[in-house]
Amino acid sequence: MSNKNLPDHPRSGKRQRFKKNLRIGILLALFAGLMIFLIPRGWEAFRAHQEKNWQSQAASMSKEVKQLYVDPKGKYFKADIERKDITALKKTLKSKNEQPFQTVKTAINQVLDDYALQQEINGLFESKALDGAVLDPAPVLKEKSSAEEIKGFRESLETNHYENTAWGSDLAALLSVAIAQQALKTDAVNTTAALFENNKVRTAVTLDAYTTAKGKVLLVKNAAVKNKLLGDLSEVENYLGQQAKKQDEEFTAKVAKETTELNEKIDKETKAREQAEKELRAYEEKKEAEKRAREAKEKADEAKRSSESAEKRSRENSSSTMTHSSTSTSTTTSSSASSESTNSDHQ
């Protein structure tokens, strides 16, 4: 009986499915092996690319930080910089936790601290005392100021070694001005207050005490403080005037004399104050002159080095020429001597 028309045996279909699944399994195994080989290398390449991208972004942000300054080395901020410009950079960095950004984060935090300190010190005065790299030669301390606040700023400068920079030196100079003006203001306020008791002029007040107080008040730079104290002193002056009317002509003459002396003293102290302001301006001019002198010296030194190098080359060329000439002369002399000796032998 023929088998041609018989159906396939069930085991034959299973074998075919097994072979098909085996081929698929082998292909999957090969693909998995390939992935195991390629994925780590792909990840490393991705990480390297990402690291390079981070470094590029960090370098760009570091450049933006430097652009906040007129002179990054001198630490002077640009005059038109505002706190929001710095905080915007910090906000951009907030989500950047990768290592390349850590240095930039540290720098921007320091910039914020530096800018805040400059703003606070500027805030001590009636107008901006340090604007960019321009220092006000005659800043005026505000009416509301305290010695403790100024002392705190000085301690901050010293703790951070800011005085090692030109910017820090200028802030230190401003604090010195603030300390001096604060001391004059405090002294004038206390001296004037001592002339009163229960908001009235002391009955035992003297002309000497009045003139001493007025002399101190006139040294106060802040106009509001000075005018208020002068208003208080006008009460003392009126009181003394009333007392003077009760005195004889001798006392009146004494008042006139001491008033003249007071005016002379005021003129002298005013001139001294103007001289101090002039010296502060001269300090700024000196700084600029020293800068120009350094630049001129650097150019002169460079010219000198170029000249010395040219002279050295000239001496070396001259020495080489002389050596060559000496060698030629020696050779000529030797040849002549040899010729003469030969002639003598022939004879």
Characterization of this structure:
By secondary structure, the chain is mainly alpha-helical. The chain is built from 8 helices and 6 strands, in the order H-E-E-H-H-E-E-H-H-E-E-H-H-H. The strands form 3 sheets. It has a two-stranded antiparallel sheet. It has a two-stranded antiparallel sheet with strand order 3-4. Strand 1 (69-71) and strand 2 form a beta hairpin. The N and C termini lie far apart (143 Å).
The tally of strands reads 6
The helix/strand order is HEEHHEEHHEEHHH
Beta-strand percentage range: under 5%
Rg over CA atoms, rounded to whole Å, is 45 Å
Poorly predicted residue ranges: none
Strand order in the sheet with the most strands: 1-2
Helix content: over 70%
Largest sheet: 2 strands, antiparallel
Broad shape: flat
Q: What oligomeric state do the depicted chains represent?
A: single chain
> Given the helix and strand composition, which structural class is it?
mainly alpha
| Count of DSSP H/I helices | 8
Distance between the termini: 143 Å
The overall pLDDT average reads 80
Helix and strand layout, with pairings?
Layout: H1 10-66, E1 69-71, E2 76-77, H2 83-93, H3 102-122, E3 130-131, E4 134-135, H4 147-159, H5 166-193, E5 196-197, E6 200-201, H6 207-217, H7 223-245, H8 249-346
Antiparallel strand pairs: 1-2, 3-4, 5-6
Helix pairs in contact: 1-3, 2-3, 4-5, 5-6, 5-7, 6-7
